[in-house]
Write a structure and sequence with these properties.
Elements (H helix, E strand, L loop, with lengths): L21 H28 L10 H7 L3 H29 L3 H28 L20
């Protein structure tokens, strides 16, 4: 009795339909977003902790001043989006590796997707609609940075 061993590059599922390989694109995204996140995070830490008075300068006025500049809004928004999608994709990979039943896997992946989408929407709204000095607000409720405006 002889047994044939498949060639090393033989697909595990030869009848699989030809379509988009989402696992490959997820893998590529993790590498690309990881490199970009390192740059964004270290830039964020450098500006917040090393420039000026460092950590002692971080307060409401610092964030208000930073987010009044579109450059920093885009920087922080990009960091938020990349980090949440990167983390969600990592969690999806863990679910695929460790969840045994198909139903549990699907439920967990839907929960991850909902959490990522909600956090991206809320975080993006905060970054791009943040106004430390809203018009018509009572003066006693406004922060000190708004007194001269």
């Amino acid at each position: 009795m002889s047994q044939t061993i498949d060639a090393p590059r033989t697909p595990a599922y030869p009848n699989r339909s030809k379509g988009t390989n989402w696992e490959k694109w997820g893998w590529i995204y993790m590498r690309a977003s990881g490199v970009l996140l390192v740059v964004l995070i270290f830039g964020h830490l450098f500006v917040n902790l090393m420039v000026g008075d460092g950590v002692h300068a971080i307060d409401f006025a610092f964030v208000g001043g930073k987010w009044s500049d579109p450059f920093w809004q885009i920087w922080d928004g990009l960091m938020l989006w990349l980090a949440l999608i990167h983390g969600g994709n990592g969690m999806r990979t863990l679910v695929n590796d460790y969840a045994r039943s198909r139903g549990l896997r699907g439920t967990l992946k839907i929960a991850i997707l909902i959490a990522v989408v909600v956090l991206i929407v809320l975080g993006t709204l905060v970054i791009f609609t943040f106004n430390p000095c809203p018009a018509g607000a009572p003066a006693d409720l406004l922060p000190s940075i708004c007194k001269g405006i």
